[in-house]
Structures are given as C-alpha cells and as structure tokens.
Amino acid sequence: MTYRLIVNDTAHDIDAPGDMPLLYALRNHLDLKATRYGCGLAECGACAVFVGRDVRQSCVLPLAAVDGPVTTVEGLAPGDALSPVQQAFIDEQAAQCGYCISGMMIAATALLADTPDPDDAAIAAALTSNLCGCGTHVRIVRAIKRAARMQRQARNAT
Amino acid sequence: MSLTRRDVLKSVPGLVVGFGLSMPGVATAARFVADMAETTRTDQLRAGGVDAWLAIDAAGRVTIYSGKVELGTGVATALRQLAAGGLDVAFADTRLLQADTALTPDLGYTAGSKTLQSGGTQLAHAARLARAALIERAAARLGVAADTLTSANGHVVGHAASSAQRLSYAALIADGIDRPLAAELPAFAPAVHRGPVGQSIAREDIPAKIAGRFTYMQDLVVPGMWHGRVIRPPTTGAFSPDAARLIAIDASDLPEAAQVVRVGRFVGVVAPDEWQAMQAAERLRLAWDTTMTVPAGDALFPHLETLPATRDVIRDTGPAALGSDAHTATYHWPFQSHDSIGPSAAIADVSPDGVHIWSGTQGVYPLRAALVELLGRDDIRVSYVEASGCYGHNGADDAAADAALLSRAVGRPVRVQWSRADEHGWAPLGCAMRMRLGATLGNDGAITAWQFDNRTPTHLNRPAKQLGAASLLAGQLARDLVPDTRHVGGDRNTISGYDLKAEHIVVNWLANRDMPLRASALRTLGAIQNTFANESFMDELAHAAGRDPLAFRLAHLHEPRARRVLETVAHAAGWQAGESAPGTWQDDGARGRGMAQLTYENNAARVAAVVAVVVGTHGIRVTHAWVAHDCGPVVNPDGLRNQIEGNVIQAINRTLNEAITFDPYGITSLEWSAYPLADFAALPEIDITLIDRPDQPILGAGEATSAAIPAAIANAVHAACGLRLRTVPFKRGALMTARREHSA
Ligand code: FES
Ligand code: FES
C-alpha cells in the first residue's frame, strides 16, 4: 500500500504495509532519525512525535492509522533554527547520552503549548511516558522550566 | 564513516607528541615532522608504551588521537579542555578522534571512570611538552633565549608586556623539520589549571543531539545493508549451554525476502527491510528442548551459598572468627540491568575483502580480538560509534557479533537492532552478591575487629583475546561456550578504608559455569554492593556503640581527603549529632537522614553523601541528596555535576526499585513495567559540593558517587522508622514485610 504522510510540512508517499508502525516510516523511509526506538511497547517515549497537536508513541502507531500531519524533532523549528525548548535543553546542558532527549522535547513542547508556567507536578505528569536511563531528570526539568520562561518572555515582548 | 588514517592525519607537516594514556610516565619527545600521516603508523604508535598522540598541524589545529571513546559523559570535551589548557590554544581549535582500530591506537577499554584518571594527566603532560617544543623553536627563530618567551593563545610571545615578539604555532609548524628538536625535553609537571581547564565548557555533542542531527549507533546506515534480528532460546538469559537445545526450525511462514541463518544454537533472520526482518523473527517457529538451569527468583541467594567458590583473602590482619559478642549482619544485592533507553545495535560488513564492524563497544580492540576468533580471520576493522547511554558491559559487543555472523551468512552488510526484550533478557547483567560482615566493639565504642566475607561472580566478562568467541553471546550460542574469565571487580571496595587494627577480608569467587545468569561489568563493578554493606554496617555499629554515625566514622577515618568530603557533606546538609537515632513507623511518612562515604577503589575519588527520605505505607522516597566530591582537579565543573546528578538518580533507583526477576526458565523482567526506571514524579533535590584540588592528580569521576547512595538510603530509612533494610531493592513490598517482622 501507499500512504500519504505529511511530515514536518512536507508530503511523502510511503510504500509500506499499513500495520508497520510510523516509527519505521520516519526512520527508514524518510531518514528522519531523531525519532528513536527504545521499546516498541509505548513505555519509554523515545519515539514520541506530534500527530496534529497530540503526542503519539510512533512505535505503536500503525501507518494506516496516522490521522494528521506529523511533526518530529527535525521539524520543531524551521531550517537550522532551534525552538525555545531545544535552546533551553542546550542552555541547561540537559543531556548525558541524549538518546531520550528527542522524546523529552516533544513531550515538553506539548506541555508548554497548553501550560505556559508548569510546576513540578505538571512537568512530571507530562513526562510519565518518557524514560531516561542516564539519570538526566533534574536537568530535563530545569530545561523545561527555562523553556517556559523563554516562551513567556517572547510572548510578553510581542 | 569511511575515514582513513590518511584523511584524518594528512601528509602535512606537524608537531607530534606520543604519550601513554594508559601508562603513566610515558611520553615521546615532541617532534616536528614533515608528514604526520607517516608518523602515526601503528607500529610507531605502540613503541615504548605510547598509545596516544597529540598532533598540531600547520593550521594550528590540535588533534588528540585516542582509543578512548565518548560514552555520553562529556569525557571528550574534558580531554579537549586539558589539551587546550596545556598547549595554550583555544578550545575550539582542538578535536578528538575516537576509537577505530584502523585510526587510533589500542587503549583497551573506556571502563568506568578511568578515562580522565589514566589519560587526562598524561595528555596534559604531552600538551606541555608540545608547548615547550614550540617555544624552543621560536627562540631559535628569534635568536633569543627560550626563557624569555611564553605562550599566549596559539602564539609564542615575549614575556615582557612591551615585547613585539609574536609567532603563531601555525607558522612555527609550517616551517617543517629543521632538526630533531626537543628530543631531550624534560617532562613537565602537569599545570592543568590553565585556559579552559576548570571552566564549564558546553559539551560539543549536545547541540547536534538536540537538533536531531546526531547519528547514534542505532541510527547509522551503511550502503546496501539489510536488517537482522536474532531469535534466542526461550530460557532467557540462562548462561548454561544445557538450558536449551534446538530441535527444529520451521521457516515456512517467513516473508519471501527473508533469509534464515543458523550456527549452532544461534538463529537469526535477515531481510532487506527492518519491518520485514521483525515480522520474520516473529514468524519463525523454533522447537527447543529446555532444561531448568536457573533457580526460582526467591531461591537465588540460598542458591549462591551452595555454589563452590574460590577463596581470596584480601586482608588478613585480624581473626578469622569472632566471639559470640560480635555484631553481625548479612546484605544482599540482586542482579540488575543496564537499561540503556536504546537497545544495542551494530552493523557488520563481512566481505571477501575484509570485515568492517560498527559498534558502540567500550573497547574496539578487545572486541576485534574476540571477533578474530569468532570469524576465524584477522582482516577486521572495528569502528566505534556512540550509542545510547552506556554504563558498563552492555549488549553492544554482542550485537556486533550477531551482525557479523548474519553478514557472513548473507554476504552483505547487516544491521542488527536488539529489541527491548533482547536487551532486558540477554545483555550482561550487574552482579548479584552477598556480603556478610562482623565486628567487635571495645569498651570505648571503637571497632576492635572487623570481618568481611562476600560471594560474587566475576564482574568482567567482556570480550577479550584470550576468551575469543566465548566472550560474545553469539559465540556462546553458536558453539555452546561459557567464558572462563579472570576474577575481577567483586573485590572492589571490600576494604572499608577505615583505620581498623584487625581486619579479615575475604572474597569468595563464584565460577561463570555455575552462574544461572550472565553477569558482567555494571557501573562501579562490586563497589556499589560492597560499599552498601560496609557503610550500612558502620551505621549499625555506630548505633550499637551509642555514637552518632558522623562522629563514629570520623573516629575511625584518618585519611585527610576522605575526612574532608565527609565533613563537607555533613556541613552542607546541616547534620545534627544524634539526629539519626531511630524513629518510629508512621503510616503517612516518617522522615530521616543517613550518610555514607567511600574512597572509590580505595585510592581514587572521595565521595560522601547524605540523603533524606520519607518512609511510610507509600514506600520510600528520597527527597534530598547532598554529595561532596573530590576527584582531584575539576576539569569541567558543570560536566562533573551532570555526571554526579546522573549517578545519584540512577543509584537511588537501583537501590529502591531495580532487580531482575526470573523463574527457572530464565529472566521474566523483559520490559520497563517489570523493571521500572526512575520517573519524574519523585525527584530529589540534589546539592553537590565539588572540592577542587588543582595540585593533585586527576581521578575518575564517572561512577564513584553511585556507590555512596545505597547505604546512605538504608541508613536514612533506619533513622526515619527504625527498620534496617539489608536486601536491595527496597521496594514497597520489602519495606512492608520488614515492618511486619519488626513489629511481630
Ligand atoms: S519506542 Fe515507542 S515508547 Fe518506547
Ligand atoms: S540522557 Fe541518556 S537516556 Fe536520557
């Protein structure tokens, strides 16, 4: 079957079985490697992407069930630009190995879209489906708070 | 990915210093050479213990060639800081070439926290030698004495502020060879606090990782590669070749494009597309004849007691048996998992012209040596590609061997990606151990005799030349092998470090062939288990002696740096004498604090921790951790803090939550709901005090903190509610059982 996907604002025709998870279309058909495999079981969030405005675990989302435009880390900001969340993760050096960080940034971006000033509990709730093996948790939380500040300042400025 | 030695070390003039990253005190003269590529041929690289090179080219660019690898810990950045500091060049003008058997020298493993410890000081030396050679050459050019010159940001300049003398390193090097300069340069004492050393330089790898442009091992693509999956026996993780015999394979349901590969008990499928390979793995039907070789989960510790052991007396200054007045306690630690978020992956291209392996291994040379034996040929190149976080001997080497067997069979490059269940079930585990302690106290409350006895498998089943295929999972399955490995790691930090007059310390090594599951190196090797026991026991003794645990420790601890970290952390935490008197149980949460300290490996980083817990029917939660840390000179404070924070979070979870579960057929904790990782819901506050010692040698900092945390938690739980937990993990169920037994 051929499936038409909009990924990071570009349309692609993917020739693959409909039960193949979106993750493999992104990584192997479109060479978008920032979306990563961690478990294939919807447990870790390494594969998180936006479908429309919703965060979805692409490892368990069949291609045939993708029902909106997909945004991956590569599409969080246009071209070489960085989104506030990405910039905040760099500023806080919020990575050890960094393998989990793509999914963390997707979850963080979704959180900040609805909650401009999240507290610890809101951040923890937004990250319940995201795992980090390196113990970078404290920095990830700090980065999300910084991103929130940056976004609020940007909004106030406009 | 297809860099050759010539690409990276061009045939251009340069200044080269060879040095011993893993062998202290070895350095070649700083040499100006006409052709850098020529100079770094492997035979010359290894001369006289030299195993790394520092090279400056005619553009002034500095390259460190090292077999060490970046493990997501920022070590590459720290090494570059040391080179820049020693040479007096900008950090941006340095780079590090990572491990590749065709490009970099043989450095063994980036094991644990050793990279900076063994390599950093040597690199700083080499950089100072190179700088001295440049100054000497400049002096000859200018016709002045070398001691009138100094360095400033990539230039040799006159000492005097008014001096107009100024020659760039680049210009000095572009001159080519004139004479074998600097052959008798003295080695310099490391003056490591210079330039970028000691600054929190941002890690160079992070921006690409954040932008989604970084290629992990899991992301790498090699032209023409197919995808492989390995289907292993149903006796998950069982070490014994007797556990499962392969009777039959039924491949009738396989997708058309897929191929089956079988070598002994090693079975895999290969297909052009990854999803096809995954489906093929699912549809292949294997019939196995299985034998129970693993004890039931709760029978593990009694089982370990029944195994034959090789006895090693580590220290023997005290009696082997203590009187009936002795205090005794026995502690247990379970098998634990590495739990990288990205399961292991590797690519192999086994072709008639040669073999190329890409792997996130911790040691490209040892892996290469094991693969030589597995494949029966030695034209093998192994390239390191950074993978998801690595905390020891995980499945990276095994995945490489999987890919090699599959690629050999199908005659094209094959990428193997382990599944989550492969990783949890088959990657080497952290070791289960039992530690038994005993001590007697004098009338003054001081320790008069101390006894330590543990049971442990070796913590080192890594690939090695002597072990060959037996050190790789694929080799174990293909040829029914169990590695016969040296005894390593179970003795780490068995010695408590306290000044004890009479000590009897024994390690009982269990043989691999008797171990139910395959264990190897996980963060700190045996230090976390042994320190959990030693530092819990110190607390028990302090209470028996009626002393505050801080005062009791200090009374037995005389090494100044160890005392200093302990005093520092106690001060930072506001420790109050008597505060850890055991509290009483409260359903809705009793609070308490505990401490622990160690000198890692008895001669490296000094770490002390205080943790605060709240304990109740909800379980145990760590609310705050204070750490004081002395690892010699602090090269990159923020990078060091990042490491320590990671150690704290990981070690809290290892202590509270982590135990591999298994039944007689093998491991059952095959994903994260059965083996939970730390979550964001209950993060502790973390306060870190770094003690900077610029005048001391660099010590490793990658993992020491982990070893201090478990006992600090156990001691805090005791302070909170009076329960003494001696078996990790301290899950809610174990806590409630302890509570019932205590009140019964
Ligand atoms: S890979 Fe999708 S949630 Fe883990
Ligand atoms: S930074 Fe390594 S898994 Fe999160």
UniProtKB/TrEMBL annotation, chain A:
Pfam families reported for this sequence: Fer2 (PF00111), Fer2_2 (PF01799)
Top-rank taxon, per record: Bacteria
CDD domains cross-referenced by the UniProt entry: fer2
Keywords: 2Fe-2S, Iron, Iron-sulfur, Metal-binding, Oxidoreductase
One GO molecular-function entry: 2 iron, 2 sulfur cluster binding
Residues covered by the 2Fe-2S ferredoxin-type domain: 1-76
Protein name: Isoquinoline 1-oxidoreductase subunit alpha
Organism expressing this protein natively: Salinisphaera japonica YTM-1
Automatic annotation (TrEMBL), chain B:
Example GO molecular function: oxidoreductase activity
Domain of life: Bacteria
Domain Aldehyde oxidase/xanthine dehydrogenase a/b hammerhead stretches: 211-292
InterPro entries: Ald_Oxase/Xan_DH_a/b, AldOxase/xan_DH_MoCoBD1, AldOxase/xan_DH_MoCoBD2, AldOxase/xan_DH_Mopterin-bd_sf, N-heterocyclic_Hydroxylase, OxRdtase_Mopterin-bd_su_IorB, TAT_signal
Leader sequence residues: none
Protein name: Isoquinoline 1-oxidoreductase subunit beta
The species this protein was found in: Salinisphaera japonica YTM-1
